[in-house]
Amino acid sequence: IFQPDAHFRRLYDSAKAIGNAAHALMIGRGKEIAVADFDSWRTGDAKAVRANAEKLGHVAILQKHFVRARNMVDVASERLHWPHDLGHGEVVLIWREGDIWLRTMIDWLSPQHEIAWDYKTTGLSCAPHAIPALMLNGGWDVQAAMHERGLIALDGAKRRKFRFISQENTAPYAVTVCELPEDVLVIGRKKL
Predict the structure, then answer these.
(1) Residue 5: pLDDT above 60?
(2) What percent of the chain clears pLDDT 70, i.e. is strictly above it?
(3) CA-CA distance, 121 to 16, in Å (whole number)?
(4) Of 19, 76, 111, 145, which residue is the least packed, with the fewest Cβ within 10 Å?
């Protein structure tokens, strides 16, 4: 039996909801988003809407947070000239190494598989000097190494670039693009 009150004990994480919505809007794929026209999740009606959305496997988000996600994507798209017509979003790679199956998902992969993009949102600073800490704390080096390993297994070895788009989830929604250098990838490969 599905009990909304028991299910609702998990706290709403606005940053995560904004990130999921921005990701879906930016990539054009991702988790299903259920926008709720409430100021908060405190009322019984709001709780019921959220519980039903989550029961269906959707990410419930308040309208004000969805608007913020849309504003973020508008700013990022304007600054990045996002190539929606070139490449594919949420590319899942699955391969086998011996008896072990591995899987990774790339947010955006260019047509010739030479550039793998990942979109990250944060409540922290995305100023260029803050990127190394975000990268280390977020495991971007290991993530890129996993993407690289899957691409090599499925598409052969060749030079590839791994770019991370980091965006603040508060206005003015600063955006920084970082391409991981070879020395960082080497460390990521060793960690992996």
Answers:
(1) no
(2) 93
(3) 9
(4) 111
